Amino acid sequence: MIRSTPFLILASLVAGSFAVQASDTTLIEAAKKEGALTVYACDPPQTPLYINRFKQLYPDIAVTTYVAGCWEIFNRHATERQAKRQAADVFFATEDVMSRLNRENLLQVYKTSELAHFDPAASPDGKSYLIVKTLIYGMAANREYIKGITPPKDWLDYANPQPAWQNLISYYDPRTSSAAFALLAALHQNLGPEKAGAIYKGLIASQASLAGTTPAGMAKLTSGEQPIMFYIMNNHYGSIASKGAPIDFILPTSGTVKLNFGIGMTEGAPRPNAAKLFIDFMMSDAQQIIQKNNEYSLRKDVKPPDGMPPLQSLKSFPLDIDKALAEQAELLAWWRQTTGVK
Predict the structure, then answer these.
(1) How far apart are CA 167 and CA 99, in angstroms?
(2) What whole-number distance in Å separates Cα of residue 203 and Cα of residue 231?
(3) Rounded CA gap, 195 and 211, in Å?
(4) What band does 3 get if pLDDT is binned at 50, 70 and 90?
């Protein structure tokens, strides 16, 4: 269990520094000549931080963003492509969406020189995108509102929920949340349909409620309305812990799940040089922002988030994202049948 403490709340600096504006001058000048960049992203809390820093470094490039749900930005891009009105130069999204873009040939390869500073996993074989950062799943409990109640310590604890958990749990819908779907797929792949089904049936038996959005779920957690969350991402935990919320981040004993965020240049990007420059930035200067906001970088000269264990030391379930995508419709149908959620 990781508890919010002053150590976590204090702002910190990255151990290991590296040069900003890592791109060569030729690329920078070409990007300035294009003068604009459009980024489609599905990371609402952090995207503005990256964009603001990029603008500070490159004030001559006007940046437009479309930030929404991961599949929402995918659908918008697909519609715009079909209408021959492509706007996006860069996609920044969870790996399921990036893998789908790759599979449908909607990305073009750009291997930034910054990859020399990363673990090989940052450039997946046969993919046209790069891994920018990794998040991990944990469970969350507001200790001020569950006094005398033992919170869950593993995914399988939900299969036999305590009576005291009735009406105290919230969770997200895998039909609309990319992170919720990735967790569903990981549990199904690693535990099998019987055990995974028991977990989701246990949530229903506990009268757990679906949170429509991440902010809604976080509000229920911090207010104590529903002080247990089926899962929370470590960056979301960090954002509320840094404000002093009495929240515990609980690493599941059987294993966490790792969720990658990828970045790639779109096929037919209207401003390819600005797109390359932004990717260079995300794999260099932005890595400091990632670490400071309780997220994991795969860059070798960046330490783990403060108060969090090294990524390589974590017991985790593997996730075959391509298999999950191929079976997405069937898996969601199985989830609806299992839970009875309409």
Answers:
(1) 36
(2) 12
(3) 23
(4) low
